[in-house]
Structure prediction request, 255 residues.
Amino acid sequence: MNITVKTPEEQELMRVAGRLTADVLDMIEDHIQPGVTTDQLDAICHDFIVNKQQAIPAPLNYRGFPKSICTSVNQVVCHGIPADKLLRSGDIINVDITVIKDGFHGDSSRMFPVGKTTPPNQRLMEVAFQGMWQGIQQLRPGAHLGDVGHAIQQFVEAQHCSIVREYCGHGIGRQFHEDPQVLHYGRPGTGVELTEGMCLTVEPMVNAGRRHVRLKQDGWTVVTRDGRPSAQWEHTVLITGTGHEVLTLGAAARE
Ligand code: MF3
Ligand code: CO
Ligand code: CO
Prediction:
């Protein structure tokens, strides 16, 4: 395991990358409407990242991924590939943005309803959101990654939803995916102990039905086996001397 600890200068570069990532999500929100295609969302984000932010969309060509963002609709758990498929009112979509600026990565995703969605879908998105925050709240020097996973699992399972096991959060910095793996389930007091200067993502995938997933033939798209919907939120977080700093808060939360 090779966990990178960021210097104060590197932490500042992580802050910049995180802010740009959040800015993309803030920007795309108003474009998520019935009748838009996920390809169109990809094109808008690509243009914004490359031309406005003068940054790099990390997914493009990452291990052969063909697009600049991930768009995961309804029963798609993660890594959905933008395509010419129209969004319909009532769909739920995760948009996952990763930006590279001055060599450092920011990684964040949010859920959006398309038009108005159903109460069960709204509740699923809310459980995933609160589950992510239960995990983030554990992050401080001396805490263990098992504390993070346990907090998320406890919360989500108490809401009668399930946690996907096959995909996890990760360290992040000069590399998109660094050590350690951040599991979204676990036992308190186990796993890596956190120290100041580490940067991690917390990104639980929460299913309305059973936790099992299947990889589609395209080699990327992960779907629920039972066909029921899935939701995910993600933040990039820095471990500080006393706790943590969320690097990918949207402008509304940054004040
Ligand atoms: N952004 C995803 C994550 O949170 C990873 C996407 S990999 C890609 O880790 F190639 F699909 F972009
Ligand atoms: Co991530
Ligand atoms: Co991501």
